Structures are given as structure tokens and as C-alpha cells.
Amino acid sequence: MKFKAPGLVALLMTFALLGQALFAAVVGATGAHTTGPTEDLSESARIARFEAQLESLRQDLKIPAYSAAIVKDQKVIWAKGFGYADVENKIPATEHTAYHLASLTKTFASTILMQLVQEGKVKLDDPVSKYGIVLESEGVIRVRHLFSHTSEGNPGERYSYNGNRFAELDKVVQRASGKSFGELLIANILDPLGMNETAPNVPKIVSTRSPNTGDQAAEAEVKAAVMDLVGGYNSSNVDQIERRLAPQQNRFRGEGGFLTSFVDASELRQAFKAGFKVNMQVHNLEVAVYGNSAIATFFAGTTVTNPNGPPRTEGPWRCSYFWNKQDGAWKLVHAHQSPLGGAVITEKHQQRFDTIQRVLAQPYALDREFKVTKISYPQGFSTSAGLISTVLDMAKYDIAIDQNKFLSKETQQLAFTPTVSTKGESLPYGLGWFTQDYKGTKMLWHYGFWTGNSSFILKVPERNMTFIIMANSDNLTRPTDLGAGNALTSPVGLAFLRTFIFPEKFGESIPDISWNAPLAELKNQFNTIAAKPYAEIYRTELASKFRIYQSVGQPNDATQLIKIYGELYSKPMPDDLVKLPVIAQIIQVLDNEDKTQSFSLPSSQEVRIFAIGEGQAGEMFDYGWIEDNKGSRVWEMQAPKTVLAGGVPKNKKVDVVITLPAGNYKLRYKSDDSHAFDHWNSLPPDINFWGIAVYKK
């Protein structure tokens, strides 16, 4: 298997510190190692040093542009743009440059959903089926499971980040409030805060009109026919609806797959008679006429009043209606509707979006040769992703959170509290926010990541500081290990912490690593700080630096760091295992191997199985198992039942005790074409072992 690094994130932190602090003169995260005398650094000096670090990392990561801001004590104390928002036209990035936030949108969804929780309209323990959500599951999925990324497998048992499932929360918002996520977002957050540089990413429909063939009179007729059809629904007049339908009218379901009748008149009459009412709103109606045929495109949202329950919102939809002129009247022959998730389409929104587009950074990515290449904008908007903003607008949002403008302190704290699994384990995600405690310092953060854009926000409550950064490249996020839910894996985040947080926390200066030093000197730098209380951050930084080299196409440099990591952090087997008698083992497995070792048990007994392999997203690539004499698997290494083995998240470990009956068995282990013992394409596990072993308990 080729490199399977999870796509990942991005940046952090906070600012501040009034007064002066003693710490070593450090340069950029990739700069020279400085161990010289400490010096007094003012706030302005720290900012200048951090700016240099950001610029150095921007170049290392091949990011065309990013903009960043620091909030302290509910005030923006620093904001700046780096590089070009538009490389081709040499337009520099500023603090007013807009970027796609991607998953940073989830923090806004957190606020909106927690408002509904606070109002009693949504309960976190509601089954999602209550809101029309149907997902495969081993148990009952509740709102809190989608909210905390714990819905996969046995709900609540484990954390597994899933943006698609998080987007299902659109339906919770719509059903509970009668409004779309986009509507509530604009009404409850963007407008009250004056976030005029922020908009949902829902571009207007491109007109289908051809200037050479347009018939304005006919276009007006078709528009009138569309609104006549809509009026029939809104007035519960089935006859009015029917007269606008062709005899063979049909629709293509938005979810795809098959054609169905657009309207069943008899069912519609029964529904209206029973008290159901419909209110359909149409926006951005455009018509193109081609002889006796026409296409009408528009956005639509529908509120259905149920006599036996609360109103529900359907849509919003992107609609394409096909019309044909029959017997002198325009009739609907075919309709297609596609869901728009949490979008809201209004004239006000359209103006907001058009304004943002004028300052929106162009998106870029690295091609196969690791060259910066312009790409297309991402599309779509939901509770999971799709918001566009600037660092200054995000600062307004951050300040409002700290001022409890949206939620009570108790409700906000609930969102910021780590989820506890059904096994009693503290997980790295709360409700729409990552949560983390590093040596007593709590950090609240989130990332955004999609091809061509990335973003990051990190809050440090005890220092009342927040760091925000956005980029027009996904490489801001790629070096960060999000699978582990660890904000410290951000290289720029670590640079920020070393500059503004760690000197005071640890009471001493914290030097940078000189990554360009020869191998022996590089290892010596790590050995020098091995006994320090902050030594583990260098291990984290080593992993992040490895991911930087991989993301920008520097395999030789990455390989050197793999060697260093293995020598420093891969240890022998645990003492308790070394002392146990070995029944069978297959170890130090290389690429593309399929090994077998037979063993027998004269009587039923407990055995201890220890195995390390490779797995990701619920699938194992290098793994072991035990077969009985019939070839049936009696035990197997399964990804959901493994724990991290160190190095990178795909290194998986299992250490279990099982009972095997007397009999003959085969121990098996199979590997794929990469990332095997002594042939690592990523950082190796913490134990110098790759394979499986069975011990006598």
C-alpha cells in the first residue's frame, strides 16, 4: 500500500503575555538552532519573531498565501496577510482576504445547534431517526453521536472523524427550527455581529439564457407558469396544480436512481383535506426558451404544516424544471431537484456572497510534481463545511463566544467538554470543537481542510487568547495529525507556543531544532533536551516535520527523519512480554509477505496475543490472525479493536488475552507492498516489533 497519511490540518494558537519574558532567541521553525544567551523580549519583538517564523513555514509548505490574527482579552492585537491571494495577478493577502473555512464551519454549527439545545428544541440524546436521518449503525445513533464524531460502529464507543455524517445535522436544524442552517447562521450570528466579510458558499445559479435565442415574451410566460404552479401548492388548489402538468410529467429524484410521477393528484387532495399546508418559496428564477421547450432553474424551500405535529422544512433545493408548450399553454414535463443542505438563498445572501467573492483568495494545490497549481473553488454548504470568511470576521465570532453572546456559560462549556466514550475513555472531541489538555493547559480548537484551502482556530482560555489562520492551500493542514486529535502536531502551532506560551509555562527558554544539521548533530539536539519537561513536544515536532517533507515532495529528508525517529523512540519489547514463554511468533515482517507458523495446545488454556500492524479507516493492511485445523479464523486483528502503536496513527497495536481450546493451530501474518519492518514509508511504531506473537499466559 502506498502512503496512507490522513489528510490533515493546521495551525493554532494564542497570543500575548504582557510584560517581558526571558527566553532564548529562536528563529523560524526551520531556522538555525540557537542556544545563545537569553534576552528580554517585548510583545512587539515576539510578534516580529513569530511573523518571521510564519513566513519561513509558508515557504517550506509551498503555500501561496495565508492570513492570521491573534485575539487577546477580547481584542484583536495583531492581524496580517502573507504571500499572494492571487498568484497570477500578484494580489497580496491581507487581513481582509477571504478564504474557504471548510470544516471550521463546524464551530458555527456547534453554536446554532447548542442554541436549539438551550431552547429545548433539540435534545442531545434524541435518536437521529426523529429528524429523518437514516444511517447504518450497530446501535441507536443519537444527536450527540453525530455531533461528537462517535456515530460509527457501536455509537458512542469511539471517536472517528466523519464530515459527511456531521453534515446530517442539517436535518436536525431544519426539523427542529423550521429554518435552514444557513438562515439561522445569518440571522443569529453573521448579521448581529456585523460579519459582513462572511457568507455561506452557495453561488447563484448561472443563467441558462442564450442572448441569441432568448424570447423575452415566452420567458415571461414560463415564469408565470412556474409561479402559477407554486401558487397552486401554496393555496392548496390541486386543480391549479394539475392544469400546469403535462399528461406524461415525471421527476427525477434528487437522490438519484429512478423516475417517479411528479404529482399524485388524489394523494395531494387527501393531504390538503386532512389539513396539510404547503408554503413554497422560490428564489433566483431564470428561464431559457427554445421554441416550444423551456428550462426554468431556481432555488426553492418548502415549509409543510402538519396538523398532527410541528411544521417541517423541506429543502432548500436546486431545481431544474423542463416545460413544453402544449395546446397553447406551458406544461411541466420533467422536474429535477437536488438538495442544498444547510444553504439559504435570498437576495440578501446573494449580495453578501457577491461581496465576499471580490476579496476571495484563489485556491491552489500541489500537483504530482509538487508544483503550486491553481485549481477550482470547492462547492456546497452545510453544517459540516462551506463557510467563507476572513480572520477579522472570525475574530468577531471568537470574541462573541467569550462574551457569551450566543450561549449561556453552562451550555457553551458543554460544547467545550471532551466526549466520554461508553468505555469511559475521554475522547479528543466535544460538540463541534476539538478539546485538548496539555500539561494542565486546555486548548479548544478546530481545523478546516479541503483541496485548495485550509484554516485553523485555537483558543487557550486560561490566557484568554485565540489564534486564527487561513490559507489558500491545503498544505497548511497536511502536516498536522488530526487523526490523533492533537493540535500540537501543527508545526506553526508549536512555533507559536514556543514563542508566546511555553517560556512562561516551563520557566525557561525553549530552543528550536536545526533541521538542516547533519544526522549526528540532529540526533544530538534531541538528546540534549531529552530530560526536559517539554521534551515530548520535540517528538511531536519531529513527526510534523516528517509530514512536511512528505507533503512537499522531499522523500530523502523524510527518510532521514524516519531513521532518527526509530532510533530515538522505538524501544524493545515490554519486560512483562519478554519474560513470557513464546508459543509461536512471526516478527520483523517485510513487504508483501504471507507467513505461517503452526502450533499445538495440548489442553485448553489462556494465551496472550501481541501484534503490531498497519490499518486505517477501519481496515487492516498488515495484520495477523489464528486459524484452527479447519482453516477457520478463531481470532483476528481488527482495526476497531486496536490502539495506537506510536509513530503515526496507522500503526496499530493489540494486546489481548483469549482462551483457546486444545488443538492444532496456524499463526498467520500478511503484509502489503509498503510500510513494513525496516521499510517504513512513515514513522515506525514505538516498539521495535512488526508482526504477531502468541505467549503462554
Characterise the protein shown here.
This protein has about 700 residues and is of the alpha+beta class. It has 4 domains: about 20-100 and about 365-515, DD-peptidase/beta-lactamase superfamily (Beta-lactamase); about 105-200, no CATH class; about 215-340, Nuclear Transport Factor 2, Chain: A (Roll), CATH 3.10.450; about 575-695, Jelly Rolls. The protein is built from 18 helices and 29 strands. The strands form 6 sheets. Strands 21, 22, 23, 24, 25, 26, 27, 28 and 29 form a 9-stranded antiparallel beta sheet that branches. Strands 5-4-3-20-19-18-17 form a 7-stranded antiparallel beta sheet. Helix 1 (about 45-60) packs antiparallel against helix 13 (about 490-500). The two termini are about 35 Å apart. Residues about 1-40, about 205-210 and about 250-260 have low confidence and may be disordered.
What is the CATH class of the largest domain? Alpha Beta
Overall radius of gyration: 29 Å
Number of DSSP E strands: 29
Outline the low-pLDDT stretches.
1-39, 205-212, 252-260
Average pLDDT, all residues: 85
For CATH, the homologous superfamily of the largest domain is named as DD-peptidase/beta-lactamase superfamily
Strand residue percentage: 25-35%
Which topology of the largest domain does CATH recognise? Answer: Beta-lactamase
Shape: globular
How many helices does DSSP assign? Answer: 18
| Percent in helix | 25-40%
Distance between the termini: 34 Å
Structural class: alpha+beta
How many separate domains? 4
Q: What's the CATH architecture of the largest domain?
A: 3-Layer(aba) Sandwich
What can be said about the biggest beta sheet? 9 strands, antiparallel
